[in-house]
Structures are given as C-alpha cells and as structure tokens.
Amino acid sequence: MAIIELHDVSKLYGFGDATTLALDEINLSVLESEFIAIMGPSGSGKSTLMNIIGLLDRPTYGSYTLSNRSVAKLRPNQQARIRRDKIGFVFQSYNLLPKLTVIDNVALPLAYRGVSAVRRLKLASAMLERIGLAERQYFMPRQLSGGQTQSVAIARALINNPAIIIADEPTGNLDSDSSLLIMELLSEIHKMGTTILLVTHNAELTRYATRVLFMSDGAIVHEEQTNLGELAPIFRRNIYGITVKTEDDDLAGVSALMKAIPAIEVPSTKKPRKPSNHWNKKTNTGRRRS
C-alpha cells in the first residue's frame, strides 16, 4: 500500500520574470517499507521534494496524499502534528542543540508531545542503548565524533516511532567508517518496516536502497528497482563504473557497525563478485535550480 502519493506536484519560487520552477509536475508513489535513494545534481530539486514530502513546504500545484489523507486539506497545526508523529528527519548538519545533553536532545520530540520528564528520559535512554550510545547519554554534542553525533540525530528521529524517515545527505560530513555505521543503522531501521527516503550524491549508497530515483531540472527523469546489497544497475551499466562490492567491503561495513552496536546480529557475507567494466561518466546540467 502506498504511504506517499504525489500527482503533478510543481513548486514555483519568486514572481514574474524572477520565477524559478523548482519542481516540474512530479508524480511519485512510495510504498510502505520502501528504501528509496534520490540522486541528482545540485539544484535538481531533491531537497525541495523532501521538504514537500516532509510537510515543511507546500506545493504550488498538484496534490499530495500522505497515509490516504490529502495534505492540502490539513490545517498548519495538523501538519505540525503529522510531522511530529509520523515523520523523522535526519539532516547532514545534525541539528542537535549544543547546550542540551545527548539524552535531552533525543528526548526533545517527546516533550512536544507532552510526555512526562521521567517517561521521556526513560524512553530516550532505551533508544540510545539500542544504537549503542548508552554510555554517552550525558555527554554534550561537542564531545562526540561525527558518526556518534549523526547516530544521536537518528535516535532523535526515531523516538516517536515514525512511519517515514527523511535523510538528507546524512553521511555528507562523515568519514568512510562513520558513513558505513550510519548506513548500516538506517538499513536496520528499514528492516523493521520503516519507510526511508535518502537524498545522496554517493552512488555506493544505492546498495542500501530498494529503488533509486534520478532527478534533473525539477523532474524525476529516471527510476529503477534495485536489489539490496547491489549497486543500482544504471551505475553498473554506463555511468560510474564502480567495482561491484566484495566480501571485504561487506565485512568493513559490519565491523564499523558492530563497534558501536554490539547487539545487532552480523549479517551473512556473500561471495566476491568480479568487478564490472568501467565506462565514461556522463554529465547532465540543468537550466532551473531549486
């Protein structure tokens, strides 16, 4: 069943000759428990699309249905309630409050729901234990590594048990080990039934997705289904020519995850595959920018 339905959604900014078309008649259906990676050059409309899906912005034209409810008919306070209860946001910049401890940052969404202080701290502590950061719950954000900080941001996004996680370049500021940790954590969340929308420029991260969308000039220009653990077919065919993931790569990802989350079971490894042929990278520049 579709949890997200967009029909001919367009978004315009500005007026008159200064009008910019950020989204151009987007049609998109997202099923429950999908993991969708969204790619495209800067200015292609990826963030604008996520803002509309996340109810941070409204479309200029078209219709948006979320969990069988028309978003256009919702009042601002109703949209705020849905954002709080159904959607979790994970940003590249983390957006943790620097003057609050880790546990207080994670518990913050529960405060907006009116949960008592004792109850929300108990739930936040359990969430931090789940992601392997129980020992750092009273640290300040500045005392954490980049990967730990992003893990805390994910814990905060999960505290209300949202149906959808929107992750906008969550590994953009992280080193390779921390990126593996975050992606393995998102993968575990996806296996529990959460729908995940991931904006990324990194083709390697399509290995975690079940579908990949490619955007250009505010439109979805291509999409394809993918198998978990495999690079999106379009990259194997004719774009980046990245070698197929090996057993060593799998083990590196698992190792990074297990260092922070010992309780998660190690997935089975696969036999190495032969590397794919290399092709020349094709570029595509857009006229309109979001």
CATH superfamily: P-loop containing nucleotide triphosphate hydrolases
Q: According to CATH, what is the class?
A: Alpha Beta
Class inferred from helices and paired strands: alpha/beta
Number of continuous helical runs: 8
Detailed description of the structure:
By secondary structure, the chain is of the alpha/beta class. The C terminus is likely disordered. It has a single domain, classed as Rossmann fold (3-Layer(aba) Sandwich), CATH 3.40.50. Strand 1 and strand 2 form a beta hairpin. It has a 6-stranded mixed sheet. A 4-stranded antiparallel sheet has the order 2-1-4-5, covered by helices on one side. The chain starts with a strand and ends in a 30-residue tail after the last helix.
From the structure above, extract its key features.
290 residues, alpha/beta, Rossmann fold, 6-stranded mixed beta sheet, 4-stranded antiparallel beta sheet, 8 helices, disordered C terminus
Fold topology:
Elements lengths: L1 E12 L6 E12 L3 E5 L6 H8 L7 E6 L2 E2 L5 H11 E5 L10 H11 L4 H14 L15 H13 L5 E5 L7 H16 L3 E5 L11 E6 L2 E7 L7 H6 L8 H14 L30
Parallel strand pairs: 3-8, 3-9, 6-7, 7-8
Antiparallel strand pairs: 1-2, 1-4, 4-5, 9-10
Summarize the structure.
The protein has 290 residues and is an alpha/beta fold. It has helices spanning 46-53, 76-86, 102-112, 117-130, 146-158, 176-191, 233-238, 247-260; strands at 2-13, 20-31, 35-39, 61-66, 69-70, 87-91, 164-168, 195-199, 211-216, 219-225.
